[in-house]
Amino acid sequence: MTDKFDFIAIGSGTAAQVAVHRMAKAGKRCAVIDYRPYGGTCALRGCDPKKMLVSGEEVVAAFSRMRGHGIDGDIQINWRDLQEFKRSFTDPVPDKQQARYERAGVATFHGKARFVGSCSLAVDSDLLEADHILIATGAQPRTLDIEGETHLTHSDVFLELEKLPEHILFVGGGYIAAELAHLAARAGAKVTIVQRGRVLQAFDPDIVEWLLPSFERLGIEIVDGAVTGITKDAQSLRVHVGDQQLTVDMAVHSAGRVPALEALDLEAANIAAANGRLLLTPQLCSETNEHVYAAGDAAASGPPLTPVSSHDAKVVVENILEGSGREPNYMGVPSALFTVPPAARVGLLEKEACDAGLDFDVDAGAHSKWFSARRLNAEIYGHKMLIERDSGRVLGAHIVGPGADEVINIFALAVRHGLTADDLKSTMFAYPTGASDVGYMLG
Ligand SMILES: Cc1cc2nc3c(=O)[nH]c(=O)nc-3n(C[C@H](O)[C@H](O)[C@H](O)COP(=O)(O)OP(=O)(O)OC[C@H]3O[C@@H](n4cnc5c(N)ncnc54)[C@H](O)[C@@H]3O)c2cc1C
Ligand SMILES: NC(=O)c1ccc[n+]([C@@H]2O[C@H](COP(=O)([O-])OP(=O)(O)OC[C@H]3O[C@@H](n4cnc5c(N)ncnc54)[C@H](O)[C@@H]3O)[C@@H](O)[C@H]2O)c1
After folding, report:
1. Is 94's C-beta closer than 6 angstroms to any atom of ligand 1?
2. What fold characterizes domain 2-50+83-141+258-322?
3. What residues does the Pyridine nucleotide-disulphide oxidoreductase dimerisation domain cover (predicted)?
4. The whole model's pTM is what?
């Protein structure tokens, strides 16, 4: 027998949660499906568990900075206990979410969903049908097409490690590599990152340059090259980078993620996709199936970040409930890199602003002498601001150093709502805080 719903979400991450609860609140009969425990990447395998672990890293980093300045002794990360601290947050998530769905009257299914018709799905032996189906299946590590790829460990597994291997290598030098490398190195592992070209290509090159000494101080080795293969035998794991062979204990995939669509059997529902991406209208509806929408990492419409998944889901719900034709607005999506110290960005990179032909001033500099850095004995602190000449609007903001991950949100407000540098400079911020540097950063 087929179970009938108004709305079904495939996935239980941020996008699915936001959409399902909004649809249920609007009185719609809803269902949610996930083959993994409810909660999705952010809560169980991404942002939150990572940041629980980073809390331990921050303490050790602060201790090292202040040692000899009124702080004595020695401290270290106890990885096993830090993991337990992390699990105190992550372990209860799936049950809490299940209970919340039940309270909201949402039907819950555990299994892999695949389309069997234009608005119907199979989950194991269950057949489900809905007026609207949301693909919120997130992303997965992209296939690298290299020999021995199966020997790669994924970030999910890294974040669950009970014991850190001695030597960890990251394949790719983007977000995942930088954050997990810092964490592992601070916890005592030897770390290597292999990246083709510049590391952290999503960030401003000067900001990255100012951040790089933190990699060096932790002994993180950065190898410029592409990983071409991995071989494993009883004794060793060898990562091939051109002619070079690096012998390590674990190699982690950090070379980009792509929408997780394979299991869905899109053809069965006439859902068009090309090059691993769904073909969507600007309103996030499938171009070829009006019953199907997508949101978050699966939609790959905006940057693959948690606030984007949530935003997409709200847009989809509004379009389904009100037929409003709303399009997502990715103006001013901030992003923070949780290394210690952190780096953060919002708006345009300098190169993007140049390519767009914009007329703008740049205010940039490294400031280890500024009070915010001095009081923490921090050596890394810098900013780059792009201000449009005529309008005075903040086009882009890039920060590295203590507090960058929080202060960026002030610039996010400015970029998204078209505030000018003068608007920010004339705002009073509590002193002394990271935000009280905002005025200085704007020249
Ligand atoms: C290590 C790591 C750290 C990150 N850190 C940050 C951060 O600090 N800040 C930030 O903003 N972003 C971060 N991100 C990105 C962020 O986690 C994602 O952008 C966000 O979680 C995506 O949410 P989503 O709802 O689109 O998908 P997900 O949360 O990935 O949910 C998709 C769900 O769908 C399920 N699923 C897939 N296929 C099927 C199927 N066929 N049937 C049933 N279920 C299925 C999956 O099991 C999964 O639970 C991080 C990502 C990673 C990997
Ligand atoms: N703090 C955060 O917000 C956060 C943290 C982690 C992940 N994420 C999200 O998850 C996504 C995926 O993260 P990621 O770090 O896997 O991807 P990424 O896109 O940030 O970086 C991947 C890097 O790997 C390199 N690369 C690819 N193939 C390679 C090869 N064979 N050899 C060497 N280098 C190679 C690429 O040039 C690129 O620089 C990110 O785009 C980000 O949006 C966000």
Report:
1. no
2. FAD/NAD(P)-binding domain (3.50.50)
3. 333-436
4. 0.98
